[in-house]
Amino acid sequence: MELLRAYLKQTKIFLIAFVFAVAASAAVVCLYQLPAEAVIYMAVLWLGAGAAAFLYGYVRYRQKAQTLCLVEKAPEINLDRLDETTDEVELLYREIIRKLDGMRMGGGDRPAAFPGRDDGLLYHVGTSD
């Protein structure tokens, strides 16, 4: 249920735009004084298409969340288990993960806030030591 709420929050603007499109289409049909069955038929078609798109998006969102949970629980970060990136934001996230993994595993470029830390833990932004 929490995952569904997160998806609804992420797609809120698209849902609002979809409801507006359905209402505008119904208003146009009513202005042409077509029978009520036409308005209902059109609304059902719109809602069916919207429900199909919503379910498809939610299934993809859920699969991605489950994959990320598996990667999070893995003893080492392995980006090969993830699907191909779909946008620039996800590509940036993966680059951040690669850099953090390099700092954790190889001791690479450590941030100045953690100069003496050698315990192999993944560094958390905002920690005091």
* Strand and helix order: HHHH
Count up the helices: 4
Total beta strands: 0
Structural class: mainly alpha
Summarize this structure as a short list of keywords or feature phrases.
0% strand, 129 residues, 67% helix, mainly alpha, disordered C terminus
Fold and architecture overview:
- The chain has 129 residues and is mainly α.
- 67% of the residues lie in helices and 0% in strands.
- It has helices at 2-10, 12-31, 36-73, 88-106.
- Residues 112-129 have low confidence and may be disordered.
What's the gist of this structure?
This protein has helices at 2-10, 12-31, 36-73, 88-106. The chain has 129 residues and is mostly helical.
Secondary-structure blueprint of this entry?
Blueprint: H1 2-10, H2 12-31, H3 36-73, H4 88-106
